[in-house]
Amino acid sequence: MCIRMIGARLLLWLRILRFFNGLTIRSWLNLFVSLLVDIISLLTTKHIRNPKLLWPGLYLVKQYNFIIYVRGADDIYHALPRREDRAHDFIVSVLRSSDVFVDVGANIGYYTILGSKLVGSKG
User: Fold this and answer.
1) Residue 103 · residue 111 · CB < 8 Å
2) What is the pLDDT of residues 81-119, one digit of tens each?
3) Sign of CA dihedral 29, 15, 38, 80
C-alpha cells in the first residue's frame, strides 16, 4: 500500500473529525474506532472504498449547526461538507431567505438540511 494513499486517507478522516461532532459517547467512539478499522482495512486489502462508520448515530455538522443521523455505511462521507464543491457553492450562493428549495433524489439529505437552513422558516 502506498504511503501517499494512506496519508490521503488520514487527511480525509481528519477532515471528517473536523466537520462532525458525535452527539453521544457512542457516536464519538464510533468516529475513532471506524477510523482505525478503515486504516487497518486499507493496509490489509487492495479494495478502496469510501470511509464508513461501523454503527449508526447522531452527528452535529459543526459548520452549519445541524444534526444528521448517519445510518452507518458511507453516509458520513456523503454528508461531508464541501465534498461536492460546485454543488455546495452553488446552493450556498443562490439560496436566500424565503426561497423554495427541492432536493430531488436526496441520498441522506445533506443538501436538503443545508437548503432548509439557508431559506429559513419562511422558505
Assistant:
1) yes
2) 888 889 888 999 999 999 999 888 777 778 888 888 899
3) positive
Give DSSP secondary structure letters for 86-117: HHHHHHHHH--TT-----TT-SSSHHHHHHHH
Residues 50-77, mean pLDDT to the nearest whole number: 88
**Residue 42 to residue 55: CA distance in whole angstroms:** 19
What is the share, in percent, of the chain residues with pLDDT greater than 90? 41
| Residue 103 CB neighbours (<10 A) | 15
**β-sheet bridge partners, residue 57:** 70
For residue 11, what are the contacts with CB-CB under 8 A and spacing of at least 6? none
Angle at 72 between CA 44 and CA 39, to 5 degrees: 20
Q: 34 to each of 16, 24, 28, 38, 46, how far by Cα in Å?
A: 11, 15, 10, 6, 18
DSSP symbol at 24? S
Query: Helix/strand/coil (H, E, C) string of 56-74?
Result: CEEEEECCCCEEEEECCEC
